[in-house]
Amino acid sequence: MDLWPPCAVCMRLEKAYDPSQIEPAWAEWWVQEGLFRADPESDKPVFSLVIPPPNVTGALHMGHMFETSQVDITMRWQRMRGRSVLWLPGTDHAGIATQMLVERHLAKSGIDRLEIGRDRFLEHVWDWKEHFGGRIVGQLKRVGASCDWTRERFTMDTGLSRAVTECFVRLWERGLVYRGEYMVNWDPGTRTAISDLEVEYSPKVGSLWYLRYPVEGSDGEFITVATTRPETMLGDTAVAVHPADERFRHLHGRSVTLPLVGRSLPVICDEFVDPEFGTGVVKVTPAHDPSDFAAGQRHGLKCITVLDEEARINSAGGQYEGLDRYKARARVVRDLEALGLVDRVEQYTNNIGRSQRSGLAVEPRVSTQWFVRTRTLAEEAIRAVEDGRTQIIPDQWQRNYFEWMRNIRDWCVSRQLWWGHRIPAWHLEDGSIVVARSEREAREQATRRGQQITHRETDVLDTWFSSGLWPFSTMGWPDDTEDLRAFYPTSLLNTGFDILFFWVARMMMLGLAMTGEVPFHKVFIHGLVRDADKQKMSKTKGNVIDPIKMTDQYGTDAVRFALVASAGQGSDVVLKEERIAGYRTFANKIWNALRFVGMSLEKAGADVWTPEDLARFEPLPDEETGVVSLADRWIFSRLRSVAEEANDAIEAFRYHEVASTLYHFFWHEFCDWYIELKKLSFRSGGGLTNGWKNMLAATERSLRLLHPVMPFITEDLWQRLTANTPGRARSIALSGYPQPREGDADPLAERDVGILQGLVTVTRNLRSELGLPVREVVQGTVHSHDQAVLEVVAGEGDALLKLAAARFQGSHGKAPAGHALAHATEFDLGLDLAEGRKQAVRDKLEKQLAPLEKAALRARRRLANPHFTGKAPARVVDSARATLADYESRIERIRGTLSAI
RNA sequence: GGGCGGCUAGCUCAGUUGGUUAGAGCGCCUGCCUUACAAGCAGGAGGCCACUGGUUCGAGUCCAGUGCCGCCCA
Fold first, then answer.
1. Is domain A192-364 annotated with CATH 3.90.740.10?
2. Looking at residues A111-122, what average pLDDT do you find?
3. What topology does CATH give the domain A750-900?
4. What is the pLDDT of residues A535-570, one digit of tens each?
5. ipTM of the complex
6. Spacing of C-alpha A785 from chain mean position
7. How far apart are the first and last CA of chain A?
8. What is the topology classification, in CATH, of domain A558-745?
9. Which of residues 228-267 of A touch strand B (CB under 7 A)?
């Protein structure tokens, strides 16, 4: 990439940072250069992660962006600190969602999938995938996700499909897959079974109808049943009462007649009946209600299905055949009313289960489906978390995981769809089934049984079945590959709590069952991205903030920073555009700081530096005086602390802490104090002095600290800063992450800069409170008992003049009465002022006195308490004494000043 | 019905094992175009840490209860 022709100092930057000028090019360069390619042969320690594969037809939303930002921080950090990193990207075929999308698309051109047939339809879906599948991948590249794009996978790739078949066959062979007629959640919209997890419940106000069924052999006697779904009465095969319910003892062993149909229904006794609900008598419809289905099994009742795949009444519904379930309901009620069999109707609110996909009310339906037996799989998955092989962070999610796993039900994995992994089962002439890795293998099995294959199973597998294999199917399983050996189990999974059960739990179960190992050692669960009103972002609400739009407008770095800085560990992000704009100004600050450093270096005539100059850990002394400047000692010490905090925070997934630490350091320490102090020693034409070398090293190290969080601007500036440095890394992403070294701490420098900052701040404050002209140099005296303060006053006169516009004399001891105007812990400060300012001084000091006296009173009371001095640890008591002494000293000095002026 | 989380400045949120006068960003007020940045600089105001009780020498932090908000499961 030759965006930057070599120049003496490649730092002639525009005044304002414009991310759109640099980001797309760097994003492309990172991919082209293959900087993030994983090396299975590396002997470095490994850090690996697979991306939660987004839907292949999807577009990047803020949730992806948030997750990607966090992961990218971790991955770039791991890479910079010398790990062999694999970040494996890819996409998911998203069975139902994609099939619906393509069906809708085809419908617009008047094409019906049932007319064109399975094969033609699948061709259309693949076309669609080729056409739109690249979008989200391109967006991930654009926002700088440092994935190994050479390893991109898709859940329907040949290799992954083979893994799906292999897994299914192995589960079948172990008796962990079974097929049978059971009640499942049926989505009449997509006309497929769906799993329990794909049903979303919401309360809906409806009616509770009380229907009267005539008792047989007892003329004129009725029993009344309560139901929310009168149309299902067409499929009733019994009525039930609780065995201990005395009210209905006389009905035991009797029968009733089902109105409209005329069928005779036995009265059964079963404890599933709640005597408190309705009348205490319930109609039993085994084909259309889960608990009725179970009761039907217990009592050997017939199961009469009256609804078809689209929830219309079928031929078993007699005169109602062909009616939609809601129309049928109205007709049934009307007809019963006409017969006087509707006793009454009450308003009733119940929870309606809706399909996550179609939004239609789910219909409990008996059908033949494939299930994974989950109990033993779940037990192993629970154990793996209990014994710490996999750690869930933050740990509150562990409880949810255990709770769900312990109450898990068998997993319905068959879907009546076309787009997905077709179940590797073949039907034989005698109605039996073989499960096999291939049609040939199936034929062999059939032959052994003396049978012929009639056809292959038409159902496909739940999308989450293939997603459940993702951590190892993507690395070549079931073969024993180099990647699997190097990178599996993966180190970390970063994902949202919304798919903890859908995905994480299934990966745990299938991973352990197939590979004998946990799929990942740590799971970090992040929160949701919400809008400014804390609402979930959704297309239907129209409140989505498009990450790509924000990226184009403010820069990826700003969007990433806003996302990670806005969320405490594991908590939701409330995202406002102003916040993103705020971090663009931070990027601009960095840009200008580097612009200034570059310009100044150019003026100084320094243009070439060595890697050693950049990697310096100890500041160099001034060539003439042989002394290391206070500013340099201080910034090197601060860099050490910040490196420590940043490393610790990233390691522990405290991303918001990384963000705020770096933000504060760069802006309020590096820019506000370090650069300002260094300006004092800037000279033209002096070349690359030691002072410059120190600044260069500090600047470069700051960029490296920031890189994982703000990859684009730091890459760009780092490339410019090091353009003429021989032997440097190709990219900042491949340079080292700053590590704290014990010897780099300089507590004396930190103390002295603290004093300097105190003097400057107190002076500025006085200046503002007293209304002194901003740049008028004032004279004054600093009184202190502390030798360190007097040394700073004597040694940092230039800094005080520049930063506080003041010339100070040091004076040992207390200030004479009335001379000082400000009283800090370590010093009194006096300025030479005209008389007229005295009242302002008085106001200011009196304002300070009140809270100080309150605090002193509290401290005094505490120290007077013998329980405190007796029981609290000595260090706490000592520090309380010191604090009180400080309060009292300041109060006394302020009072002294007040009475003297 | 069972479970989980939250309640701290006008807004969005930090606050590690209990220990000085509770922090940040944004917003607000005042003054500055100081030779990197007005997307800037300097200064400032603003808080019964939801409520009640308890443990403790000491509670935003630990315990119990109450209220409100949100989420998950049935």
1. yes
2. 84
3. Helix Hairpins (1.10.287)
4. 777 766 777 788 899 999 999 999 999 998 887 777
5. 0.94
6. 53
7. 69
8. Isoleucyl-tRNA Synthetase; Domain 1 (1.10.730)
9. none
